[in-house]
Prior knowledge:
Radius of gyration of chain A: 22 Å
Distance between the termini of chain A: 36 Å
Distance between the termini of chain B: 32 Å
Number of helices of chain B: 6
Order of helices and strands of chain B: EEEHEEEHHHEHEEEHEEEEEEE
Helix content of chain B: 10-25%
Oligomer: heterodimer
Amino acid sequence: xxxxxxxxxxxxxxxxxxxxxxxxxxALTYEPFTYIMGDLSSGILQSIVLTYxxxxxxxxxxxxxxxxxxxxxxxxxxKVYKAADSLVEIPIMIxxxxxxxxxxxxxxxxxxxxHFISTYFPGYSFDDTFFAVFIxxxxxxxxxAIREIGTSYKGDIVNYEDVAKTLGINETTxxxxxxxxxxxxxxxxxxxxxxxxxxxxxxAILIVAYYIFPSFDKLAGVFIYSQWIxxxxxxxxxxxxxxxxxxxxxxxxFKVVENxxxxxxxx
Amino acid sequence: xxxxxxxxxxxxxxxxxxxxxETKGKRNFIMGENGSGKSTFLKALCGINTLVNGSIYVGExxxxxxxxxxxxxxxxxxxxxxxxxxxxxxxxxxxxxxGNGNPDIxxxxxxxxxxxxxxxxxxxxISGGEAQRVAVAxxxxxxxxxxxxxxxxxxxxxxSRMSLISSLFDLIDKFDMTYIYVTxxxxxxxxxxxSLTILDNxxxxxxxxxxxxLRSYRSWVLMDYRNIIKIGDRYYRVxxxxxxxxxxxxxxACSFNGRFYVCTVQINGEKYFFTSPREYDAxxxxxxxxxxxxx
Lengths: 267, 295
């Protein structure tokens, strides 16, 4: 006999899936396939490639910062460290347009940090640059990698490292041969989460880099937004379909790699 | 071989304070209830837990200022923590490849512990009992002066556990290592020991060379909770001669386990247990021949 609770919860389960699936399906079917294919020449493909590449750089950076962050946090339980750790989630809760403003008032050459940078890099400018995109997306997305990797490391993997050290293996080697290898899956997942969060960002990018000089390329989210403003729903929906399809394909590839690794190593 | 003085460790709100601990001979046992600080103490000795205070010596060498990989104290945790990304062979040889492990011990241990047929297998493919043997072998191969074992065989059934521990002790004796074995099962003591230390609420309660030397009620309860009663504010170990049927005495209920009766007696609201060749419904105790224990 089926569980009574299962019958109660199943409609919620189904409703949740529909909330995810219906808009995605609408994006893929709103315009005919031939129209979507025609939209490929609108510049969306180049914009998607640029977006994915930039976001990959951001995600790799987030992952690289996550390792030392997780290591330091696992060795320190003091109040100062706990307070510092609570800062990580703050960028997630700030409205994205506000993040854009925060970046401008921090990194513009006329602002303190920007001015400091410009003294070492003459000709430094901030808005509409790759650096503006990078630092804004890093600010917004790094928390996902930090948390994914930090939780795995501190929660369990550090115990394996501790045992390795009692076997006479020094700290650096233990971290390298035990922890980093066991962190492969969290690293991959942290990369994917940061990358996906960066790809989805529009609000802050609209403020710091509507175009990227000197090529005038736009990130995919901004490109589709400008299409919607200038050309209406049809072209924007077609570009959205392309973005959704490529996003699904890349996520699927990551899942396959993650699952393949999970079968060989349970981490 | 291993000595520790004025050890103080703070883990959250739990505080471990061990004024003095010294191993005697090779076989050293530590017993204590859950949460008494057994694992915290072992982790402090091997350097996983940071000391707030204290000093640790291995032989004449002070090691508390050294990182764990320089202490020559191996730790086998209860959950074993075999490295899942490596095969059995790679787990065993990891200290030879990256530390100061001893290849001669590797060859001996693989043979004695019957590990030859599983060397190329992933550690995820071996059984729980095999994993325990591998964890112990891995620690031995790292050639430590002291091995700390945190109930590594607790998941085994009684007979397998005793067999494993016995083989292990023979092996450790062969390589002239000192070990500290943490257990909460008093049956393990039957295999012989040089010292038995009772940890209680983060402190050493007693340290003795034989069970007969134990003086504390709390220590005795760890060995055998039966035949210990509290009357007034004093604890006693009673034998069957001290138990007297008395219809005006403490109410008692007995059940036969096939060999003897296990009786429950209620004294001042607390339940105590004693064993007896006969059944009782109410008892008093003749305490003149009973052993009085410290509270």
